Amino acid sequence: MSEELAFGHAFLFVPVFVGSGALVWFWLPQTPGPLKLALLMCVFGMAFFALRHRPGFWRTGILIAALVTAGMALAAWETARLGTVVLDTPVTTWVRGTVTARETTDRGYWRYTVALAKTSDPELRRPPMRITLLSRSRETPVNIGGGIEGRARLSPPSGAALPGLNDFAFDSYFRGIGAVGYFYGKPRSVPGSEGTGTSGIATWRAGIGETIARWREAVGARIRGTIGGDAGAIAAALVTAEERAIGRPTIEALREAGLAHVLAISGLNMVLAAGTFLIGARTLLSLVPGLAHRFAIKKLAAGGALIMVFAYILISGGAVSAVRSWIMISIMLIAVFFDRPSISLRNVALSALIILAVTPSAITGPGFQMSFAATVALVAGYAFWRERPGRESLPATRAANRWTGPLKAAGGFFAGLLLSSLIGGLSTMIYSAGHFHRLAAYGLIGNLLAMPIISIFVMPFGLLAMLLMPFGLDRYPLLVMGQGLDWMISIAQMVASWGGEVTTGRIPQQAFLLIAAGGALACLFRTWLAISGLMIVAAGLVVVSLSGMEQPDMVIAEDGRLVAMIRQAQASSNRTKPPDFVFSQWQRALRLEDHRGPQQKPELAIVDAAEAASGEEPTETRATKPPIDRDAARNVIRTLLASAAPGRFLCVAKQWCAATAAQGWRIVTVDDARFIGVACDEADIVVTPAMLRFRTCRSGALLFSGQSLRRTGAVEIFGTGAGTADKADGRAAMRMVFAQAQLQLPWAQHRTYDWRSGQFDAGGTVE
C-alpha cells in the first residue's frame, strides 16, 4: 500500500468513494436531507483534521467516510435543487407553452420539448414545467423559441418494466421532464410567452439554451439534407447527438455488431476531432516561414483545439459521455501549455469528480459507467504498455530495419486498434449485460472492420465540414463522410447477419457489484494489489455461474394492459401484438425466445358490451355504458376458463381474457370495467387498466387495477409451492415483487398524489 501511495494513486480513489456515496443515497429507501448530510460531513471533516498527523487505519477510515458522505450530500442537493414536478396520472388536456428544443424522427414526425405555460380543459393542479410531445404532422414545424398549443395526451414517464430494470421516471426527473405524450392533430404556432415571473438569470439561460438548440437543429438539418438516408442521420448524430432520425433497423444492426458506441459523442469522437484539428493546425502553422522559431506552434494548435472542443460540447447537447470526454480532452490540451503528461488516470479522476460535483445522478446510468470503465481501462492499459519491460531496446531495432517502417506503422495501427477494441469491449461487458441484458459476440470483428473507416473518413472529414460550413463549403467533405458511414452501415449489417447477439438476461446484483468493483481495482492499482481486483472479478463470475436469477411465473405491466405467463423461455400474453417498448425489455431480461398470443372467441362476446372499447380512460366512459347481464357474463367467463388451453389466454376482444396458469391460478384480464365484479367472483387474479376506487375484491381474489399498479409499478409473481393457496389445494401460493417498492422518493412521489383532494398519500409505501 505504501508503494501505491508513493505513486500518488490515492487521489484516484476519491471519485470512487464520492460516487459510491451518491449511489448509496439513490439506493436508500429513506433518504437523509442535504442539511443532515452536510452536518455529518463537517463532523467527519473535523475528526480527520484532528487526526491529520496520525497516519493509520482510523484516519483513512474517517476520510473514506467523509468522501462517501460528500457523495450522498451532492446527490441530495441535486435532487432538492431540481425539484422536478412529475405528472401524477395520464390526462388529456389543452397545453400551451414555448418550444425549447425539437428533433425529427425517422418517420418525419417532430418531437418537441416544451416549457409548459398553461393547461386548460381541464386545468392541471400540478402542471409539470417541461414536457416532451410528439407531433405526427409532417408539415412545417413550430420554431424553437416560438409558442405552441394544442390538445395533447400527457402521461407520467414510465417506470421500470420489471423490478430492477431502468426506471425512466428517474431519468426524466433529473432531466427536468415532468410528462411525455403526443398531440392530437397538428399543433398550432402561437406567440411565445414572455417568461413573466422569472429572474433575469433564468431568462438569460433560457435564451442561451434556445440559441444553442437552434444551432443544433440547423446543423443537423443541413447534414441530413446533404447526405440523406440513415448515413445522414448518423452523421448528424455524431455532431449534434440527435439520434431519433436513424431508422430502427440500422440502430439494431449497429448494436448487434458492437458499433452502437459510435452514435454516442464520447471519447472516440472527441479524440478524433481534437486530434485531427491539433495535427492539422500544427502542420499548417509549421508551413509559415519563421513562425515555428518565434512561437510554440504546438501550444497555438492546442489553444485552437481547446476552442474547437468547447464549440463541439455546446452543439452536442451535453450528454454524460460527451461532457466526460470534453473535460478530459480539455485537461489534456491545457497540459500541453505546461509541458505536462496529458494522458493519465489523474485526468480521468478529475473529470469524474467534476461530473459528480455537478450531476451526481449521472453515476446511476450506463452512459457514465460504461464511459469511465472503458476510459480507465484504456488509460491503464496504455500505462502498462508504455512501462513494459524491454521497451528501451525497441528504437535500435527500428533503426536497423528502416525499410520496414511503413509496414510496422500499419501493423502498429491495427495492433493498437485490436487492443483498444478488446480492452474497451471487456471493460464494458458487465455494464452492457447489467443494463441492456445483451452482448455483441462479434463486436470485436465489427470494430476492427469499421474503426479504420471512422478514423480516416468519417470524423476527419466531419470536422473539416464543420469548419467550412460557415463559408458554405461543407458539401464535399460531408459527402466523403457520408460515404464512410455507408460503408460502416454495410459492415454493421453484415456482422449483424451472423446472428452473434447474446442475450444474458438479468444478472445477480452481487455479481454486478463484484465484477465492476474488481475491474476498477485492477485498473487503478499499479502494484501486485491489482491481482486482488482480478480475484474479485473471478468471484463475481463464480456468482453468475452458480446463482442464476429466479424466473417469475407471471408478469404484469405497470399500466395493467399487458399480462404474461412465463414458462421457461416462452411468454403467453393477453395481447396478439404486445407493445414493443415493454415486451422487448421483458424478452431480454427474462431471456424469452417465444411469444404465444391469445386465442380468440368472438362468439362469446356479450351483446350489450360488444361495442364498448377499453379506450385509454375506461373510468371516464363507464357511466355511459349500459349494464351487463351478470349471469351471462358469469357463464362466459366460466366457459373461457374451462376452454382455454393450459398456460394460454383465451380472449373476447375489447372485453376480457382468461387463462389457467401451470400453478393452478385462474387469471382474468379485464378491458371493460363493467366485468370486474364477475371476474373477481370467478378468478384468483384479476388485472385491469381501469382506475378503480376500490383496491380489493370482496371474494378475496387478488386485484391489480390501474390505480393499484400506479403505486406498485410492474409486478412479478412467483409460485412458492402447491397446496398452500387460500382458495383450493393444488394452486401454488404467490410471492409478489414490485418494481416500485418505495413511494417517498422524489421521482416516485407523484404516484401517491390524489388530484381530487390535491394531497399526497401520507403512507407512501406499497401495499
Structure description:
With 767 residues, the protein is of the alpha+beta class. The chain has 4 domains: 2-82; 217-387 and 406-503, no CATH class; 509-546; 554-732, no CATH class. 49% of the residues lie in helices and 14% in strands. The chain has 25 helices and 22 strands. Strands 12-11-10-9-19-20 form a 6-stranded mixed beta sheet, with no helix packed on it. β21 (753-754) and β22 (759-760) form a beta hairpin. α6 (200-227) packs antiparallel against α7 (229-240) and α11 (297-315) packs antiparallel against α12. The chain is globular and about 100 Å long. The model is unreliable at 396-400, 609-622 and 722-728 (pLDDT under 50).
Strand content: 5-15%
Biggest pleated-sheet summary: 6 strands, mixed
How big is the Rg? Answer: 29 Å
Structure summary, number of beta strands: 22
Low-confidence stretches: 396-400, 609-622, 722-728
Number of helices: 25
Question: Can you lay out the helices and strands and say which pair or pack?
Answer:
Blueprint: H1 2-6, H2 14-27, H3 34-50, H4 57-82, E1 91-104, E2 110-120, E3 130-135, E4 147-155, H5 168-175, E5 179-183, E6 188-190, H6 200-227, H7 229-240, H8 248-256, H9 267-286, H10 291-294, H11 297-315, H12 320-337, H13 345-358, H14 366-386, H15 394-400, H16 405-436, E7 438-440, H17 443-468, H18 475-496, E8 501-503, H19 509-524, H20 530-546, E9 554-556, E10 563-567, E11 570-573, H21 580-590, E12 594-596, E13 599-600, H22 618-621, H23 630-643, E14 650-652, E15 656-660, E16 666-670, H24 676-682, E17 685-687, E18 702-704, H25 706-712, E19 715-719, E20 734-738, E21 753-754, E22 759-760
Parallel strand pairs: 3-5, 11-12, 13-14, 16-17, 17-18
Antiparallel strand pairs: 1-2, 1-4, 2-3, 4-5, 4-6, 7-8, 9-10, 9-19, 10-11, 14-15, 15-16, 19-20, 21-22
